[in-house]
């Protein structure tokens, strides 16, 4: 026999044994559990190679239309999301292992990917203490100041509206966390958005085979082709966070730093128990999650204004009744109880195209469970199919239309009710209140002061607005002051806001 034949002869009993065991396990597994219909895929790799790299929302929506309320991991209706991820959140909302995005790129320290454990609980509490609704008063003055700066930027450089959104959202969170403002085109801010987008890109299901099949992390390190890329992203991300913390420490030494979350946090006993990476990722997560999501959400509503202008008219009736029809004054926080149409607009913005998490965020079941005849094993990965639910006619009348009236139901101020823009259950966005307020004051003022129109020959395709843009605007749109009086109002009320420095 030739040597390959010898090797084959020698290993074939092992292969047969391995295959038999695999089959036996599969039979036992199928007897014990009953899973929803599976989408046909490849042996071993399942559906990994069918998932598009970007804009998975429309892809997952098609699956939902075809396969019904539950597919392999996708929960495709609000009813089942509520039943499992909210009512049974204690066992449904942990996180699976992500050896690339959490292990290598985040050194196990990004809170959004930490499974249910004591570390997650400690971190969630720290974040909750800064971001909860009790903290309104801390954020409101910054949101007021920064949204005035936002209007100024829209007036002066309308074609840079997207960068202005990014600066605005970043500066609010930066002010609260690091006690300093950010300016347009700041290098560290640009890098922060880059690393946030790199994380999102790497997190897309199917992008990293090891995150779908964590067993691959057992390969020798030299064979893990994803590892050098992961290390490179980790280093870049860590440096962005580290630069902020170092600058802060310098200002503290020089006695020029005002009190902020970071100065308080650096003095707590919790931080003494944290490793360096964990400490940096607490700061970094706040900056990353606090900046990217709000700029995207404001962009969505602008797309809604340009493509469905009928609601803008009605929003302005509400705004003009409160602030004057001739640009008398800007909308203020105190006007909120009278501007319920704007609150409905913001909710509709979160529902309409849930671009922050197009196919939800994967969670892991931690205990075997039964639901409506299905038996799920512990370890099953679930997600709420955000795009499919938001655009289902079974959930919403005329779902593709931007139609704030659907939320004019007396619950405009209950920002989480009626959509899944912030996720369900125990993993619901811990910064939802701050995010909602960021969007509310920005949109109230932008819609009062500016017209948003599609550019002839460049219609906005609202079904493919990208979530990852690499510094470019999400779409092109024409931004003009509503009237000369509105432009004058911005000059009068916002010029000082741009000059404030701390
Ligand atoms: C418009 C704004 C925002 C939107 C649409 C949004 C959306 C989301 C979504 C969909 C999740 C995942 C929920 C899940 O896994 O079920 C999430 C998680 C999270 N968000 Fe937000 N978010 C926003 C603003 C913010 C802000 C301002 C902060 C902080 C400054 C923040 C911090 C976080 C954190 C730390 C998590 C992880 C929570 C955990 O895993 O326990 N978010 N957000």
Write the layout of secondary structure elements.
Elements: H1 3-32, H2 56-67, E1 74-75, H3 78-86, H4 89-92, H5 99-104, H6 118-131, H7 136-156, H8 161-178, H9 187-203, H10 209-212, H11 227-254, H12 261-266, H13 269-272, H14 276-307, H15 310-323, H16 340-352, E2 363-364, E3 369-371, E4 374-376, E5 381-384, H17 386-390, H18 432-449, E6 450-453, E7 478-481, H19 484-499
Parallel strand pairs: 1-5
Antiparallel strand pairs: 2-5, 3-4, 6-7
Helix pairs in contact: 7-8, 7-18, 7-19, 8-14, 9-11, 9-14, 11-14, 14-16, 14-18, 15-16, 16-18
Protoporphyrin IX containing FE binds next to helix 6, helix 14 and helix 18.
Give a brief rundown of this model.
54% of the residues lie in helices and 4% in strands. The chain is mostly helical and 502 residues long.
Description:
The protein is mainly alpha-helical and 502 residues long. The chain folds into two domains: 1-32; 73-499, Cytochrome P450 (Cytochrome p450). The protein has 19 helices and seven strands. It has helices at residues 3-32, 56-67, 78-86, 89-92, 99-104, 118-131, 136-156, 161-178, 187-203, 209-212, 227-254, 261-266, 269-272, 276-307, 310-323, 340-352, 386-390, 432-449, 484-499, and strands at residues 74-75, 363-364, 369-371, 374-376, 381-384, 450-453, 478-481. The strands form three sheets. It has a three-stranded mixed beta sheet with strand order 1-5-2. A two-stranded antiparallel sheet has the order 3-4. The chain starts with a helix and ends with a helix. The model has no long low-confidence stretch (mean pLDDT 89). It binds protoporphyrin IX containing FE. Protoporphyrin IX containing FE (HEM) is lined by residues 111-112, 124, 127, 131, 173, 285-286, 289-290, 293-294, 297, 350, 356-357, 361, 421-424, 427-431, 434-435, 439.
